[in-house]
Each structure stands twice: as C-alpha cells, then as structure tokens.
Amino acid sequence: MKLNYRFFNIALCLIVVLSGCNNESNISELPNFDNTNFEDRTYIVHLPKNYNANKPAPLMFAIHGIGIDAAGTQQFSGFDQLGEDEGYIVVYPNSYDGFWSDGCNCQYVEQIGIDDVKFIDFLLEKMKKQYNIDTTRVYAWGWSQGGILVNQLACRRAEVFAAFASYVGTMRLPVASACYPKKPVNIVMFNGTDDKDVNWEGLPNTEFAFLAIPDLFKKWAGLSNCSGEPVSEMFPDSVDHIDVEKLTYENCSGAKEVVLYKIIRGVHALYRNKEIDTSEETIKFFNKHRLND
Fold this sequence. Notes:
By secondary structure, the protein is of the alpha/beta class. About 25% of the residues lie in helices and about 20% in strands.
C-alpha cells in the first residue's frame, strides 16, 4: 500500500513551533482578553449518527496545529468516522488567529493575554449544557502545536480528562518546570525520529525551548508513578520509509497507561496507512480509559 501522509505548512510550523513567530507590535493597542468568555471564538461540533440525548456520550477535543484549522483537522483526522461506533461527540476548536497559547510565554497570543486551557474549559462547559456528556469519558487529542497544548492540558486538567493524545507534539520547558497534575494521567504520544519541526532531541537553551521526546515520555511516566521499563512492541513492517515501535509503561499508579509510538524515520506528518493508522490507535486508546478508573 502506498505510504499515505500529509504535510501542512511545515515551513510555517517550523517558524512558529521552534522560533515563536513573535509580533509584539500593537500589543498595547489591543483590549485585554476576558478568559471567562470566549463566545467570539469558533469551533465545529460533530454529533454521531446514533446520538441519543437520553444517553451520555463520550466527548473528544481534536485540536489543530499551525497552518490548518478546525475544518481541515476534521477532514484529515478521520475522527468523525472512527468515533461513530462508540458515539463520540467530537469538538474541533479554532485557535486565535491560527496560534495556540502553548505555555512557552513566547507566542503573540500569550503576550496579549489568551489562555487556551481556559478556552477548552469554556467549550467543555458549553458542551455539557448543550448535550448529554459522559463526564468520565472526556478526551483531548492535538496535532503539532495542538499537541503541545494537549501536554499543557494534561498538566493542568488531569482531573477532568480521562486520557490525552499528543500527535507530533511535545512540552514547553516553562510548562515542564511547573507541571503538577492533580492525578496520574493516561497519555499516548506519537512522534517521528526525523521530525524537523518538533525535534526528537528537543530544543534546549532558548526561550522557545521544549523537551526531547524521550525525556517527555519519561516525565509522564514519572508523573504517573510508573515503575520498571517500558514494554516494546514492533509493528509489522507493512510500508516503506518508516518502522513503528510501541513503548508502553504498564505498571503505573491507578492502572494508568503512558504510551509512546516511536515512528522511526517518521517526519512531521499524519500517518494513516497499512502499517499504522494513528487516528485509529488514538480512538482505541481513548476507548480503554475512563476518568475514575
């Protein structure tokens, strides 16, 4: 089967994720943002065909990266279709002007006062008012800078989300230094060893710094009180260009799971092919976990 992956403005991703893409001009001219009211922000909601207002439904946030929006993420991720059997409501939020406040304190959106963790809080409360949500089955997936935001969510909202998925994401160093989740987390990471935007080796010693992927994996294992070494599983080699190793910490506090899909020679792309369908693996991971497990 032909290798199927897509690139979305990689050059723009590189500028934003690694160098911050600051624009400090006119900040003083902008109004202060009210992080309790995000009515002007946009998002897409997908309701499953079998949605029943009398039955609590699982809820998933799918958070886009740089160079793509909610509509594009809805199209390429496949979550609408993959979530049908379990009846997922999927929310695709849009960032402010294409950028998330990812915790580095180096982005324009952070400099003007936006807190996107509170935006997700706002959307969650809105979904709970509009739909019958199973609050033990609320999940967050993020791509690229959206994955960086998901790691921040896992630090700040572990008591709200049943599981997290970070796709070609990482964690900013300021977030890492202040990451004290209220409880252990279930988290799955998907990262490529040849990713030039979110480098496997990390980006140290700059104001835009982020953790190396192996260090982030170990950090989540530590925060979830995992013991021993991760169990390794190699996927059958079904396509050219990549190999996939799944690494799982199984002995974690509260039966939590910390998983890394190491995509060997993988780049900054969404892999949905014969060897690995990362969207399908995400849904499988979410299906296993409940908030109070």
